[in-house]
Write a structure and sequence with these properties.
The chain is mostly beta strands. It has one helix and 19 strands. The strands form four sheets. Strands 8, 9, 11, 12, 15, 16 and 19 form a seven-stranded antiparallel β-sheet that branches. It starts with 5 loop residues before the first strand and ends with a strand.
């Protein structure tokens, strides 16, 4: 009778199957076991483990060698790929630098971080130079600016190399307008020069000899006109006008005063005079901007302005342009006088490679 029991070397169990068949649990090849002697209970079968291991090793070694060969091939390919990646990355990555004179490139723009010493509390930092074929733009960061003042122009701008050779024009630029407004004493000032930078990589120093600071000044005058004739259309400009009155006074004037006022034949004339230094007055920088408005009637005009060399300024406007047809003979007007004042601060400011 064919043997119906076999031993599984992996499970270490006796199975009800013929030797040579696969184990129904793990699939390993089953081995034969000795038969029992009739009438006697045989000893628990314990196969020869050394022989069993030898048989299993003979069957598994070729498969293991094949598997190891495949793993070695995969590892070789992966190692070659990673080595290539590392090599290319090492070649592409530039060396890091901590030099304060180093810069990055973005098209024609080069970035710097060169600072000057402070002059009258103002410090300049060269941030970038954008060099084109025909124009060059220099960007500066200014700090320590006086309140409500911005850099309007740069004077004596020059760009040189380490040997002192000029890279932007053959002489310092006398004056160039600056873009940007200051906020809390800080400003990004950009200037554009219609000329090319001869060698942007050779820039070693940028110098500014002086800056012009600009501040907006505004003064306000309240004007009240009482004229019963304003109700009539057209206005009968007859004088004297017993019921006519004029009042003009400053409501916000730090740099000027109202020196006089007159009302004649429907015309208002104000005489304004500087208060304090003329060059710091709203009347000290040429003809100021003047606007007369009637908030109640909705009119606004720009009057005639005549300024003398000493700053005394006459402002003239007609009531027919502002309040003709008003139901109220009393008309209240606002006169706003404004200008931009300039102040020169001498340097120099030198921003140089460290």
């Amino acid at each position: 009778m064919a043997q119906r029991q076999a031993w599984c070397p992996r499970c270490d169990e006796v199975r009800q199957a013929r030797p040579g068949r696969p184990c129904p649990v793990c699939g390993s090849t089953l081995l034969g076991v000795p038969t029992q002697v009739a009438g006697r209970r045989g000893r628990a079968v314990r196969p020869d483990l050394r022989a069993t291991v030898g048989q299993a090793r003979g069957r598994l070694l070729p498969a293991a060698r094949a598997g190891l060969a495949g793993l070695a091939a995969v590892a070789l390919v992966a190692g070659t790929f990673l080595a290539g990646r590392v090599t290319r990355s090492a070649q592409a990555a530039p060396a890091a630098t901590t030099s304060t004179s180093a810069f990055d490139s973005e098209g024609g723009r080069q970035f710097y971080n060169w600072s000057s010493r402070a002059v009258d509390g103002i410090q300049l930092i060269l941030t970038s130079i954008d060099a084109g074929d025909r124009i060059t733009t220099v960007s500066l960061e200014a700090s320590g600016l006086p309140d409500a003042r911005s850099i309007a122009t740069l004077r004596g701008l020059s760009v040189t190399d380490a040997n002192g050779h000029r890279l932007l024009r053959s002489a310092p630029i006398p004056e160039v307008p600056a873009r940007g407004r200051a906020f809390s004493g800080q400003q990004t000032a950009e200037v554009t020069v219609e000329d090319r930078l001869t060698d942007k990589a050779a820039v070693d120093r940028v110098q500014v000899d002086a800056v012009t600071l600009a501040s907006q000044v505004e003064e306000q005058v309240a004007v009240t006109v009482v004229d019963p004739r304003l109700r009539q259309q057209p206005l009968h400009e007859t004088d004297p006008c017993p019921g006519c009155k004029l009042d003009a006074h400053c409501t916000s004037c730090d740099t000027m005063t109202v020196a006089g006022a007159s009302y004649h034949q429907g015309e208002v004339v104000l005489l304004l005079a500087p208060k304090g230094p003329v060059d710091r007055s709203v009347l000290g920088a040429g003809d100021p901007d003047v606007v007369v408005s009637n908030s109640g009637f909705g009119g606004e005009v720009q009057p005639a302005v005549d300024r003398s060399p000493g700053g005394v300024t006459a402002v003239q406007f007609a009531m027919t342009d502002l309040a003709l047809g008003s139901a109220n003979p009393r008309v209240e007007l606002q006169v706003i006088v404004s200008t931009e004042l300039h102040q020169t601060v001498n340097g120099p400011w030198r921003m140089q490679r460290r």
